[in-house]
Amino acid sequence: MNKLRLGIIGYGQQGGFYGDLLAKGQVSNMEVGAVTEIDSAKDARIKEVHPEVTIYRDYKEMVKSGDVDAIITTVPHYLHPEMAMFALENGIHVLNEKPAGVYTKQVKELNDFASKHDDLTYAIMFNQRNNPLYKRIKEIVDNGEIGDIRRTNWIITTWWRPQAYYDMSDWRATWGGEGGGVLVNQAPHQLDLIQWIAGVPEAVYGKVKYGYQRDIVVEDEVTAVLDYGNGATGTFVTCTHDLIGTDRLEILGDKGKIVVEDSQKVKVYRMTKSENDLNKEMDFEGVKSLFMGQMDINEIYQVEEFSAESQWGGQHAGVLENFAAHILDGEPLLAPGSEGINGVRLANAIHLSDWTNQEVSLVDFDDNQYLEELNKRIAEEGKYETR
């Protein structure tokens, strides 16, 4: 087998995007084996792009058909865990779309289930882990080039969505249909990246607004304070009503700093000595010289600048190719599915912190308490069954 046969579950915008990537040969070691799509109105489009593949109405039938070696789940978030577990149970590899699920209890169940099927691969579509810019930033942090992290700040408000976006589907921006708002739908990549690069926080305090600037019941404005447990802190700010938008990430270490603008332009400040040492050694004359601009700043730090052009499509194709290469050739997996719980837990904790008006631990996060609070909100909507 030199190509992995992928079954696409759901041929909407995202599923169609993956289908196009494979049809155009942008993933050398993967092809479309079959498609599951419940809406027959999409059949003509699917047959146009994939004339040889079978279209199934039931994903379970496709999983058992022998037409596919792996699946990708481009369906509403609540369905990701149950579809993944059914595929694994039937000997099929899984690439889940993000997020891994809506609440930690179901994601833990999936992770436990996947761990018992270690002959199969379970991965998640964290395509930004394949972004050269963030891969390089992670290398810099992991190599200790800016020292121990003291603070992280990420303002990511480039997720503007008009009311028409939310009105497209009844399930969108609902607790029972989608499971949340910007934290669940738009920002999971950043929630993953900040933990992938800087480490998993130990606690979080969230201030969240629901239907703040849109006629929705879920969150469209979020400010969260992260506590890494070692003195380091962080902030995470996101929303869907900032038309201008800001995307700025700062990671401060005791030996330097990384500043990222618009996920494209990066400045890395590397200090010649740690801030602790400079603090101990610099006398008042040195401080005066520094503040008056008389000191050669190169004696304090050097600056590296680099940028990365947007690679829309290429990052997704890279995750697909890595997933196939891991299965076919044993290549290390870029985004193991088991790590998907980190972003889900952080999003859940931000919600729970706001709902209870207290800091929430991620170390001993209460899965049952979160689900209980989520179900209260699903019940209030009166449109969906509780979980």
From TrEMBL:
SUPFAM superfamilies: Glyceraldehyde-3-phosphate dehydrogenase-like, C-terminal domain, NAD(P)-binding Rossmann-fold domains. Residues 5-119 form the Gfo/Idh/MocA-like oxidoreductase N-terminal domain. It comes from the Bacteria. Pfam families: GFO_IDH_MocA, GFO_IDH_MocA_C3. One of its GO terms (molecular function) is nucleotide binding. InterPro entries: Gfo/Idh/MocA-like_OxRdtase_N, Gfo/Idh/MocA_Oxidoreductase, GFO_IDH_MocA-like_dom, NAD(P)-bd_dom_sf. Coiled coil: none annotated. Residues 134-258 form the GFO/IDH/MocA-like oxidoreductase domain. Gene3D superfamilies: Dihydrodipicolinate Reductase, domain 2, NAD(P)-binding Rossmann-like Domain. This is Gfo/Idh/MocA family oxidoreductase.
